[in-house]
Amino acid sequence: MLKRIKKHILVLSLIISLGSLLSACKPAEPKLDVNAQKTGFVLTAEVQASMTAAARPTATETPIPEPSATATVLPSNTPILLPTKTTEGTTPATGVDRAQIIAQEPEDNTRFAPGETFTVTWTLENTGTSTWTTQYYIEYASGESLGAEDKVYIWLPVSPETSLALTVNMVAPSTPGNKISYWKMYNASGDAFYDFNITITVGE
């Protein structure tokens, strides 16, 4: 029993000695340098701030382009309409052409000597919807010409519901009897739209 106790004491002593040796061999824990830690923290914060600023996109002002004057280019096949000047008396007729003689001088069946000259005045009223231009005219059509001009033009424009007097110089024929001269009125396109006549008596 005593030997066994001694043996245990020896083992325990060896364990204690071994623990002392291990404790002696363990390196001392380094002391913390508080100032160094503070400096490191500051440098780390500055580096992180620099990296964040570099990664963040910089706000740049985008200039607003000023509107520039642009010319409108028409297609090559677009007609360019220029103002036109209308000359009085050449305007094409529009509407309906109608006429009526409201007065005649001399009256029908007036007697003239053979070869006697006289003047006939017809007062024509525009009873249509078109305006007569100076391209409208009256013209001898058939019967006795009575020495008159073949064609007599309107001498000023005549609007609807107004009238105009036309004068024609004539000569009584040499043979006695009743003589009828037939006339027509034409528009600017040469279309006849009114027939009229005059009758005279030729006697000794």
UniProtKB/TrEMBL annotation:
Residues 107-200 form the Nbr1 FW domain. Keywords: Signal. It comes from the Bacteria. Residues 1-23 form the signal peptide. CDD domains: NBR1_like (cd14947). This is Nbr1 FW domain-containing protein. It comes from Candidatus Brevifilum fermentans.
